[in-house]
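Notes from the 1:1 (GR / supervisor)

We went over the backlog. Supervisor wanted to see one worked example end to end before approving the batch request, so GR pasted a single chain during the call. The sequence is below; no edits were made to it. Supervisor asked that the structure be written out right there so they could see what the output format looks like.
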Amino acid sequence: GFTNHVDEAMTMLDTQQAQLREAGCFDVPGYLLADEVYYGRQHLPVVKWLLQGASGHSPAWGRYQE
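Structure output shown during the call:
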């Protein structure tokens, strides 16, 4: 029965992806912390550091330095 719904499902997926793009969402993981959006897994060390209170040395340079 799955193949009977493929066209409908693909249309729904296309519509949802278009709505997400219009809303500023992308096809990568995104993390929202304190009104800052971090896109991609490369930010996970910073996200973890921020969630743990941002104490000690930051795992990245730039704006994460405290």
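Supervisor's comment: The longest strand covers residues 30-33.
Batch request approved.
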